[in-house]
Fold these 3 entries.
Entry 1:
Amino acid sequence: MDATYRADLREFNELNFARFDAKLEQRLTELDAKWLVRWAELDVKLEQRLTALDAKWLVRWAELDAKVDALGDTLRKELAQRSPRQSSGRSTSSPCGHAQATHGLARGNQS
């Protein structure tokens, strides 16, 4: 193998590697762009589903709150019918907005 042939072969290999490296870089750049688009789409989809879930939970909590309030009203009415005497000057609502009669029952009527 003479020096000219070796130099030509080395140059040919370097050119092939440079072309390969350029194609690889281009394909990796394209792949990165595809993944960025896919992640953005997934992010939008996730955000939509979380928003829908939040709305669903708000409705569920409102329904539960209405049921608890209705139960509290029913319990207060039943307690008022059973004991005709008035409470000892205490407020009828607690800091959280529910009637003390309901809280008293939940605590085992410690008063």
Entry 2:
Amino acid sequence: MANSPLELLEIRNVDNAAPARPGAETSVPAPWVLHAVGALTSPDAQPGLDQAFSRVREATASVDAGRSVGSWMEGATSVPDASQPA
């Protein structure tokens, strides 16, 4: 990812047969999750970071399950487009 504001792209297999329990993100939305991380080093970096995330979304659109999972970052306080319960 040379010359990109993206720091990490991870494809994580989360498929499993474990019984789901009530709560936030206790069942998997799809067999795979794409996790992308960018470095917002200054307010001026925002347009480039938005463009990089857009390119990732365009490249993965054909396999998009249409759902999002919360950040794995500790202390995340909200997930605006989190997965809805099944």
Entry 3:
Amino acid sequence: MATFPFGINNRGHVVGFYLDADQVRHGFLFRNGEFTTIDHPLAAADTQAHDLNDRAQIAGLYERGAGQAAGLGRSAPNRLGDAAIRAHSLAEPW
């Protein structure tokens, strides 16, 4: 397993991805000492978070299958772990 940070905003929130034991990439948000996994529900395998702004809006990508990637945009909920994740793909609404 390994962790790859990609972006940090002015508030110190960090995004990136980590590899699990099966070498699948999962996006993450590290904010206020809490680590949250970001997986797009349509991802065939990988989800990656690449950057974020000071409002914790996250940009990245996910793999749709057969090597096809799609854009990922996510607005972080007010509470980490909130089941009502507000996000969308550039290709398909989520």
